[in-house]
Design a protein that fits this description.
By secondary structure, this protein is α/β, with parallel strands linked by helices. It contains eleven helices and 15 strands. It binds adenosine-5'-triphosphate (ATP) and magnesium ion. The site of magnesium ion (MG) has 2 residues, from helix 1.
């Protein structure tokens, strides 16, 4: 059996505008059923990448394959059926103002010449799927931002795409509505097995639903990996700065005091299988040290439990600190000795 091809695969994709390299040697694969987050600052090349994927832009070099079929040389007419395999969701919804919710969702089915009875059933099912049953006859102006985006998602799903390409779909929405829309996308991904490429500049969006993340910077991939691992231990400086305060920093109320004495403050990044391990109680049993959780917690990142724990450690003897650190290093993503601390008063 041959393995099924990636839904989308970019190999060595470069795109210049004049002397400016908007994309340089980008390799990217989106596998069936996954939610991949693509994150980057303004100007990183996200929109250029999207346009290379849907054939609106031709790369100068490299290949773009959708379900195993290369598209970079296809003519406009040959691109049409390929584009139908990609459902797009936009930041500003792009609904037709003079069409109802149902008519907006029906449009791709009309374009695909589907029979009327099939269109009606499908539109009803889709609006129900996105939680808009009963709003079929509302016009966009009568819907909230979140509801408009639900229509946008239903429309993107109408032609049964292989890939849902979400371009800043939640950037125009308030945090609560963002949460609901991300929940809907995660639900559709689970229930229909739909593959999603999620383009965003918001780390929170990636954290909430993407299993893997690719970080784009100046047209190049700066870093990629499973979301929980990248978030727990970012390598590229752009990732660290996108993560902002989450990446570093002491918990409030603690200051590092120079010299030995006081508690040793450790930062432990835990994730995957070890996230729930009884790390702290073990230190008492093995080393006779006392350890207390000073700050931090465990939360799901891309579906995997990840924690950043600040631990105040008092070893039985000062020379125990080193063996304790190497013991912890073995069962955490990262163990860092930050210094000795006292509480700020
Ligand atoms: N048609 C064009 N002509 C010239 N330069 C362009 C063109 N399109 C994009 N660029 C440049 O390429 C770079 C990447 O732009 P792109 O729009 O892909 O970034 P982006 O990541 O989508 O940014 P944003 O988050 O602001 O939407 C930018 O420096 C931009 O100025
Ligand atoms: Mg853009």
């Amino acid at each position: 059996m041959t393995p099924s091809p990636s839904i989308l695969r970019l190999s060595g994709v470069s795109k210049h505008f004049g002397a400016h390299a908007a994309l340089s040697d980008v390799d990217l694969a989106v596998e069936p059923g996954e939610i991949l987050g693509l994150i980057g600052r303004s100007g990183a090349g996200k929109s250029t990448l999207i346009r290379c994927i849907n054939g609106l832009e031709r790369p100068d070099a490299g290949t773009v394959a959708i379900e195993g079929r290369e598209i970079q040389h296809l003519s406009e007419s040959a691109l049409k059926p390929v584009r139908r395999r990609i459902g797009m969701v936009f930041q500003h919804f792009n609904l037709l103002a003079n069409r109802t919710a149902a008519e907006n969702v029906e449009l791709p089915l009309r374009i695909a010449d589907r029979p009327k009875a099939e269109r009606q059933t499908r539109v009803r099912d889709l609006l129900q799927l996105v939680g808009l049953a009963g709003r079929e006859d509302h016009y966009p102006a009568q819907l909230s931002g979140g509801q408009k985006q639900r229509v946008g998602i239903a429309r993107a799903l109408a032609a049964e795409p292989a890939l849902l390409l979400s371009d800043e779909a939640t950037s125009a929405l308030d945090p609560e509505t963002t949460e609901q829309i991300l929940g809907l996308l995660a639900d559709i991904n689970r229930r229909l097995g739909l593959t999603i490429l999620l383009i965003t500049h918001e780390m929170d969006v990636v954290r909430r639903i993407a299993g893997r993340v690719v970080v784009l910077e100046n047209g190049r991939i700066a870093e990629s990996g499973e979301t929980w691992a990248v978030f727990a231990d970012p390598q590229a400086s752009v990732t660290k700065s996108l993560l902002g305060h989450e990446a570093t920093g002491l918990p409030p109320g603690l200051v590092l005091a120079p010299g030995p004495g006081g508690e040793a403050l450790l930062r432990l990044d835990v994730g995957g299988e070890n996230a729930g391990a009884p790390l702290l109680s073990e230190l008492g049993l093995r080393f006779g040290a006392s350890a207390r959780l000073v700050a931090g917690g465990i939360e799901p990142v891309g579906g995997v439990p990840v924690g950043r724990l600040f631990v105040g450690l008092t070893p039985a003897r000062p020379e125990d600190l080193e063996p304790i650190l190497s013991h912890l290093s073995a069962s955490t993503i990262r163990t860092e000795f930050l210094g000795h601390v006292r509480r700020a008063d």
